[in-house]
Amino acid sequence: MYIRHWNWLNMIFNTVIGGLGKICLQSCFFMRRFSSISTLYSSCRSVVELLNPLAREYKSIGSMKKELAELQGELAQAHKQVHTSEARVSAALDKLAYMEKLVNGKLLEHKTKTESSVASPSSSMLTQSLDTVKGKSPRKSLDVSGPVQPYHPRLKNFWYPVAFSTDLKDDTMIPIDCFEEPWVLFRGKYGNPGCVRNTCAHRACPLHLGSVNEGRIQCPYHGWEYTTDGKCEKMPSTRLINVKIRSLPCLEQEGMIWVWPGDDPPVETLPSLLPPSGFEIHAEIVIELPVEHGLLLDNLLDLAHAPFTHTSTFAKGWTVPSLVKFLTPASGLQGYWDPYPIDMEFRPPCMVLSTIGISKPGKLEGQSTKECATHLHQLHVCLPSSRNKTRLLYRMSLDFAPVLKHIPFIHYLWRHFAEQVLNEDLRLVIGQQERMINGANVWNWPVAYDKLGVRYRLWRNAVEQGSKQLPFSKPM
Question: Is this structure's pTM higher than 0.90?
Fold first, then answer.
């Protein structure tokens, strides 16, 4: 039974994490050229008929020369029309790209002027590029350069997913770093999750080296025991005194453990990260990565790099599209890729959701996910562990082939595939990080297909600058 489904495994390997496929021609471009190409085809057909030996027997040389001259004229005219159409389409595309640059430039200029009074120094501040393009207005760019700055406290005032529920057993602990602070997750007496500082109040011993005892985490040094709210309830060999370590608000929802690391009171509702209706979760993977979480988000929000970066995994053999676009509402952090049948969303503060449309193993059909029969849904959570480390939570769901869930050790296969794809990205992102720290700007030349990544950076800048109304916050 497992061999029978091996083709589906190959399909998942070729589609997991990233953008898929390529549609060769834009339909609008084809329609605009259709009449000219039809004329050209008709002329060529007439030339073939004229030069056919059977046809020459019934025509005089003079009439053939006359008809040939007329057809040559028609052929030249058809060529001219085709070139004209190509020039018009090219000019229109150039104009569209230029207008997008102007709009982005105006947006950046407006944000800089209106928020300059409350702006604090940040490596993500907007700056004016000194370069000019073909005599046009100076180009605006994002400035993401220099050593990674400490995370702004305002970025902490969100609910962050930090672990999958299935990984947190009643007798286990999960140590994590969040915003450069050490924490440890464990379940309390009634199974409720808790998150406390991973440092004993007595002698600063890491608590995760100990054990869970009746819903309390026990320090391995002298046996002090703490509840999920950080209160020390047991001190063996000495008199109990009032001691408490810091704890974070901690909730469990939809199979994930969430914490609120900020100083502001936590909001009451958590965003939903479940896959769409009809999908089943097939894999949940946690990987620690040696890159700053913003650079990883930049990478995940970009599909244009796939045919150049992932040449040994899911994009092997891909041709390069002539034009890649991300189509999205004016106010939104979600949309779809063209020419890839992929929907994508950045969900604050650090999540990327994508739905990939597929119809056959390893194949792409249709220009939208709605035109595809089967789908792959992905969730990436990029938790900022420190300024150069990210805790990645990855969840993969399918709306087909439920039998894959029952294949022994399939989880290890999914993890192997995920790590292969991530390793192709990591060597590049780590190189970016090294150059960024030395002063290079990793966002110096945004282009049309960078739209979603640019909007993430603008959203993050607005949070750090204390904007009352965050950009791109309207639902689709």
Answer: no
